[in-house]
């Protein structure tokens, strides 16, 4: 384990240590999984999937990739949303497994319907994928994948996902829990202005 | 912590440990009385507040042990607009932990204005046929207790001289929290429109106070427990003092199902379910009911007896009536530069010019406009973009980047007319997890309330435009169906025929039952009830202690 991985692991254990015993008992496996996930992901090798087969994973990752695409900044792929979703489905979102299992079958069917010569959704071109997703964007399956992708992108990294805080970087959120005024552009401007007037606010 | 045997009669049993219950516990125990506080929620992180999580994903998935709010799945309630409808499952939820709603609230701590205690007589804009009534006390009578609450709890703010803000006899103990960008923009607009902006008084300390450290502006604020104890909740102020006296026991997971009375009509104690749903009978010389503006009424209605067949303290049928939940209006906008509203308290500045009702508007109503705008990363990502924004894809990502940190919201807290038909009672069909009749809420806004909400919606748009917004939007106004600002279901008054408690919070029907919480509010103010509840509690405690020491309430202590 690299030094960085060690410190990350220590951080995870430490953050788990601030939770109460009942919560740890209830979510012991989630925490272990998060730790395992984090330590494995440090080396660059992808973490092991617990719910999806490799084939299913490619489909879900392709979907997530269209929901928050990678352009000049990282997207769902870099945030490792797939791994957040995978872990969610084996832990606190276990009851949603059937939505994914059936949804993947429907996705396959829709792909075949629109592109009869195509194989898998993930093998389509980006434009073709968008076409398929636009057709299913009102389904419970799509909405669930969207919700899980967004959560995987923006939740605190300790929960898995938001790898290297790429989600937060996109929206300029730093995750710090200690800030000092001025906070933003307009309050800073206001303070400057009132200082020029002799400090009278 | 002191422990009492339930069979041993204590001086006071207090139902609820929130804004009012916490204060009652402290005042009564420090005055030398034996006190048992029954809290239906858990401990939260009482005494180990640094363990409160700041993780919004965890906060959405709390275990039953870690919940800070009531759970409508088990603490079931139903809702209907009027008596003709059949009530359906409701989502009324409120603070439910040691410290009650003060553990997680936005912490606004406005006083009611002097005229808000006598609007029925004073305000010519009030339509006929409503339940508006004068309070049995004046602002001047309550003023010393507002000051006491501000200093004992720790309220930050700026004392201002304005016709739109209640006059104060003393400054706040600590200065206001720093101005945020939303507040600065509000000031820009206000100077153009000739409006008055004041820093919001908050139960969040801006400087170290009474052994607690100042707020660190973490930004994960309303809805979360405070890790540094800067939020002046009952759990970090009055309750630890009560426990320290050695005379106060707090029992958590204690779900009261009845206030018991003897044949003479005096309260003898309470019956509650403990964490294992076993019935426990706690004997007490006096009962203090501080369960909140809805649950207090429900518990009285549950406490039926031969002497009180329609519920305790309800010989006049007023219990549960005139309940108010808190209407609002809001508008949001995007600005050119980053506001970074994710830093600091949820709400700072407020525009106060529209607090009074004005005959020129053609309806009764007033309110406060508050500057805010923070969306957590998850809130922003899941459904926080401006209307019409894409939900996925490259355009969604672009909108996330552009709108994050560039948004502010004006949230208005407005009047609500108390109506006799708006009430809390017992659902005839639905039972809660303990097998008791669920709370049923019947509520519809008066037409003036709707006009008032629309007025504030328009004013919010006007202010945001004057502040230089790039894009403004405002959701349609809608009435509240429940929630933490519940008030008014056990109103105080001098006339036992039209009110539930007297001006010192004693139930008209029961000499040793005191109801002290938001249920006593005769009128709703501008929907910022907590400081008034706290002031009332300090005042009530003083009178109850005086009478108890004089033996009026048959106390041995």
Q: Count the strands of chain B?
A: 17
Characterize the main sheet of chain B. Answer: 7 strands, mixed
* Topology pattern of chain B, helix = H, strand = E: EHEHEEHHHEHEEEEHEEEHHEEEHEEH
Count of folded domains of chain A: 2
Spell the H/E element sequence of chain A: HHHHHHHHHHH
Output mean pLDDT of chain A.
Answer: 82
Provide a count of the helices of chain A. Answer: 11
Distance between the amino and carboxyl termini of chain A: 55 Å
Biggest pleated-sheet summary of chain A: none
CATH fold title of the domain at 173-218 and 328-415 and 445-478 in chain B = Cholesterol Oxidase, domain 2
Helix content of chain A: 55-70%
What value does the average pLDDT of chain B take? 96
Radius of gyration of chain B: 23 Å
Architecture of the domain at 173-218 and 328-415 and 445-478 in chain B, CATH level 2?
2-Layer Sandwich
CATH class of the domain at 173-218 and 328-415 and 445-478 in chain B: Alpha Beta
Largest protein interface? Answer: A-B, 50 and 53 residues
Given as residue ranges, the uncertain stretches of chain A (5+ residues, pLDDT < 50) are 1-43
Q: What form of chain B results from the Cα inertia axes?
A: globular
**Structural class designation of chain B:** alpha/beta
Describe the overall structure.
The complex is a heterodimer of chains A (201) and B (557). By secondary structure, chain A is mostly helical. Chain A has 2 domains: 48 residues; 123 residues, no CATH class. In chain A, helix 6 packs across helix 9, helix 7 crosses helix 8 and helix 7 packs across helix 9. With 557 residues, chain B is an alpha/beta fold. Chain B has a domain of 168 residues: 2-Layer Sandwich (Cholesterol Oxidase, domain 2). Chain B is 22% helix and 17% strand. In chain B, the strands form 3 sheets. In chain B, strands 1, 2, 6, 7, 8, 9 and 17 form a 7-stranded mixed sheet that branches. In chain B, strand 3 and strand 4 form a beta hairpin. The radius of gyration of chain B is 23 Å and the shape is globular. At the A-B interface, helix 2, helix 9, helix 10 and helix 11 of A face helix 2, helix 5, helix 8 and helix 9 of B.
């Amino acid at each position: 384990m690299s030094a960085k991985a060690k410190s990350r692991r220590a951080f995870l254990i430490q953050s788990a240590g601030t939770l109460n015993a009942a919560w740890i008992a209830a979510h012991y496996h989630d925490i272990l999984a998060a730790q395992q996930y984090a330590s494995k992901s440090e080396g660059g090798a992808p973490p092991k999937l617990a719910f999806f087969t490799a084939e299913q994973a490619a489909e879900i990752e392709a979907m997530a990739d269209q929901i928050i695409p990678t352009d000049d900044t990282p997207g769902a792929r870099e945030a490792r949303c797939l791994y957040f979703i995978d872990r969610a489905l084996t832990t606190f979102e276990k009851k949603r497994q059937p939505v994914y299992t059936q949804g993947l079958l429907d996705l396959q069917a829709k792909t075949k319907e629109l592109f009869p010569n195509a194989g898998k959704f993930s093998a389509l071109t980006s434009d073709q994928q968008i076409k398929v997703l636009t057709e299913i964007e009102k389904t419970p399956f799509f909405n669930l994948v969207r919700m899980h992708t967004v959560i995987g992108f923006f939740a605190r990294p300790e929960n898995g996902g938001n790898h290297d805080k790429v989600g937060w970087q996109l929206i300029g959120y730093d995750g710090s829990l200690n800030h000092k005024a001025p906070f933003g552009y307009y309050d800073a401007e206001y303070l400057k202005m009132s200082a020029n007037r002799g400090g009278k606010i | 912590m002191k422990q009492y045997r339930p069979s041993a009669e204590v001086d006071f049993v207090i139902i609820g440990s929130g804004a009012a219950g916490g204060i009652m516990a402290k005042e009564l125990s420090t005055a030398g009385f034996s006190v048992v506080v029954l809290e239906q929620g858990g401990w939260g992180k009482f005494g180990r507040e640094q363990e409160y999580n700041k993780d919004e994903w965890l906060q959405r998935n709390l275990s039953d042990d870690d919940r800070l709010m009531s759970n409508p799945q088990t603490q079931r309630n139903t809702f209907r607009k009027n008596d003709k409808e059949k009530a359906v499952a409701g989502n009324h939820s409120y603070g439910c932990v040691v410290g009650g709603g003060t553990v997680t609230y936005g912490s606004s701590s406005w006083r009611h204005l002097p005229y808000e205690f006598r609007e029925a007589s004073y305000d010519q804009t009030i339509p006929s046929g409503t339940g508006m009534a004068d309070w049995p006390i004046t602002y001047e009578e309550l003023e010393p207790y507002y000051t006491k609450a501000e200093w004992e709890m720790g309220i930050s703010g700026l004392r201002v001289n304005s016709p739109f803000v209640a006059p104060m006899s003393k400054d706040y103990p600590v200065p206001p929290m720093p101005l945020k960008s939303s507040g600065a923009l509000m000031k820009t607009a206000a100077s153009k429109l000739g409006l008055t902006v004041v820093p919001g008084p908050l139960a969040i300390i801006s400087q170290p106070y009474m052994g607690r450290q100042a707020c660190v502006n973490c930004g994960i604020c309303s809805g979360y427990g405070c890790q540094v104890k800067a939020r002046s909740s009952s759990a970090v102020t009055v309750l630890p003092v009560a426990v320290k006296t050695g005379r106060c026991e707090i029992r958590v997971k204690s779900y009261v199902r009845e206030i018991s009375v003897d044949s003479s009509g005096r309260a003898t104690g309470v019956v509650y379910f403990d964490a294992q749903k076993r019935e426990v009978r706690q004997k007490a010389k006096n009962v203090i009911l501080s369960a909140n503006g809805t649950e207090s009424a429900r518990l009285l209605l549950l406490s039926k007896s031969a002497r009180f067949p329609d519920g305790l303290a309800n010989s006049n049928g007023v219990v549960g009536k005139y309940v108010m939940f808190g209407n609002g209006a809001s508008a949001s906008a995007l600005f050119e530069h980053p506001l970074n509203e994710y830093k600091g308290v949820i709400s700072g500045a407020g525009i106060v010019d529209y607090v009074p009702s004005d005959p020129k508007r053609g309806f009764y109503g007033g309110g406060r406009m508050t500057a805010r705008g923070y969306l957590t990363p998850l809130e922003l990502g899941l459904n926080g973009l401006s209307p019409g924004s894409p939900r996925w894809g490259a355009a969604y990502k672009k909108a996330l980047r552009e709108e994050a940190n560039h948004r502010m919201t004006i949230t208005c807290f407005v009047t609500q007319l108390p109506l006799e038909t708006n009430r809390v009672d017992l659902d005839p069909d639905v039972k809660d997890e303990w097998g008791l009749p669920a709370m049923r809420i019947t509520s519809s806004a008066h037409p003036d309330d709707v006009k008032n909400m629309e007025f504030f919606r328009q004013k919010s748009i006007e202010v945001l435009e004057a502040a230089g917004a790039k894009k403004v939007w405002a959701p349609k106004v809608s009435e509240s169906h429940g929630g933490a600002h519940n008030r008014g279901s056990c109103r105080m008054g001098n006339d036992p025929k039209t009110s539930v408690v007297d001006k010192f919070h004693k139930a008209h029907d029961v000499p040793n039952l005191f109801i002290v919480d938001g249920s006593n509010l005769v009128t709703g103010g501008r929907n910022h009830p907590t400081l008034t509840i706290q002031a009332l509690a300090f005042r009530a405690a003083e009178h109850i202690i005086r009478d108890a020491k004089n033996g009026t309430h048959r106390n041995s202590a």
